[in-house]
From TrEMBL:
Protein name (database record): Glyoxalase superfamily enzyme, possibly 3-demethylubiquinone-9 3-methyltransferase
Organism: Amycolatopsis saalfeldensis
Coiled coil regions in record: none
Stretches assigned to the PhnB-like domain: 6-131
Keywords carried by this UniProt record: Methyltransferase, Transferase, Ubiquinone
InterPro entries reported for this sequence: 3_dmu_93_MTrfase, Glyas_Bleomycin-R_OHBP_Dase, PhnB-like
Annotated GO MF terms: methyltransferase activity
GO biological process annotation, one example: methylation
C-alpha cells in the first residue's frame, strides 16, 4: 500500500465569511490562487453557497478554509499567527495597512530589536498576522 507523503497545512475555520476572507487575502499576495472550492448546496449542513471546503495559496504556501456549519464558542487567537517575511518596507507597510483595516493592532509598526521593522495585527476576520522586514 502506497502512503501519501505527510504534509502540514494551515486550516482556517470561519463562520460564514470564508469566501470574503479568501478574496481579500488573494488580493494582497503574489502567487495566490484558489486551488479548489466546494460550497454547501441546498439542504447541506451549512447555509447554501457558503464554503464547505477550500484550498488556496498565498505566496505559494497552501492553506485550507471552511465555513463552519456549527456555531462555536471560540475564534481565532493571536497565540497562532501567520508570519510574513516581507521583502521590502513598501510591502510591509502595504500589508500592515490592508490587514489592519477594520482589525486590531497588536504591535504597531516599529523597531523591536529583533527586527528593524515589525508589526502585528488581527485582521477584520480575527486572523492574526505578524509582518517582518527581512
Amino acid at each position: 500500500m502506497e502512503r501519501t507523503p505527510q504534509k502540514v497545512t494551515t486550516f482556517l475555520m470561519f463562520e460564514g465569511r470564508a469566501e470574503e476572507a479568501l478574496t481579500f487575502y488573494l488580493s494582497l499576495f503574489e502567487d495566490a490562487a484558489i486551488v479548489a472550492i466546494r460550497r454547501y448546496g441546498a439542504g447541506g449542513q451549512g447555509p447554501e453557497g457558503t464554503v464547505e471546503h477550500a484550498t488556496f495559496t498565498l505566496a505559494g504556501q497552501e492553506f485550507m478554509a471552511i465555513d463552519s456549519p456549527v456555531a462555536h464558542g471560540f475564534g481565532f487567537t493571536p497565540a497562532v499567527s501567520l508570519y510574513v517575511q516581507c521583502s521590502d518596507e513598501a510591502e510591509l507597510d502595504r500589508l500592515y495597512a490592508a490587514l489592519g483595516e477594520d482589525g486590531k493592532e497588536l504591535m504597531p509598526l516599529g523597531s523591536y530589536g529583533f527586527s528593524t521593522k515589525f508589526g502585528w495585527v488581527n485582521d477584520r476576520f480575527g486572523v492574526s498576522w505578524q509582518l517582518n522586514l527581512a
